[in-house]
Amino acid sequence: MTGFWRFCSAAVVSLALFVGGGAGAFAQEPERILVFAASSLKDVLEDAGAQFDQSHNTKTEFSFGGSQTITRHVVAGAPADVLVTADDAWMAYAVKNGVLVDDSVVELASNGLVLVGSEALNAEAVELNAEALQAALADGRLAMGEPETVPAGRYGKEALTNLGLWESVAQRVAPMENVRVALAAAARGEVPLALVYSSDAKVEHGVRVLAEIPQDSHRAIVIPGALTSGHSKASEGFMEFLKSAEGRKIFQAHGFKVSGD
């Protein structure tokens, strides 16, 4: 009898382990959400994704790059659920190519422009006139997004043109593939000046703001987001989260402006 009960006991333990393991095996896997977004939105969107995943059975992942690059990838068929660009021109390009859900485009936030320099090199404030810019640049260059394709570069060229400063710096521009590359160049002291978004200056402690670009010198810098035609169900919830009061607070915390500011 002793051997029999020992057998029964072992059988019960084995069954319990099987059932427990089976429950874990059949637990629902987190639903993946893939967001294609502009490089300038990396910090804010990763923060938002982490907070969203905490209260949902989701795993939000990102592919960051220049707005022109990520949008072209989505148009070419990349498996994104959500597209968030740094301006409305590239979002309009995605709409025109029919890769987004109709009427899903929404303005999530807006941004501004600033001139920054290296904190370590004690860069000093710069007045927005040709003489002061030339003096600040010395033998160096002005890093900014590529003026013809990168949103930050287009806004920057527009602002400098309207301020009567473009001609004085056009030959000194170091065009970058996206605004975060320009920001990093200033932080490392590789360039004396970089023209970047206000939100970039807030997250990069290696730079200091040397001048704020007047808002009326360029078109409004809007941050639009939209669902792609092949989006997952979970991504709908993520977009709603970004538009919510909680989502707006995250954008504000990262230096963006939201409706009501």
TrEMBL record:
InterPro entries associated with the record: ModA (IPR005950), ModA/WtpA (IPR050682)
Coiled-coil features, chain-numbered ranges: none
SUPFAM superfamilies reported in the protein's UniProt record: Periplasmic binding protein-like II
Gene3D superfamilies according to UniProt: Periplasmic binding protein-like II
Signal sequence, renumbered to the chain: 1-25
Record bears the keyword Signal: yes
Keywords per UniProt: Metal-binding, Signal
Family: Belongs to the bacterial solute-binding protein ModA family.
Name this protein carries in UniProt: Molybdate ABC transporter substrate-binding protein
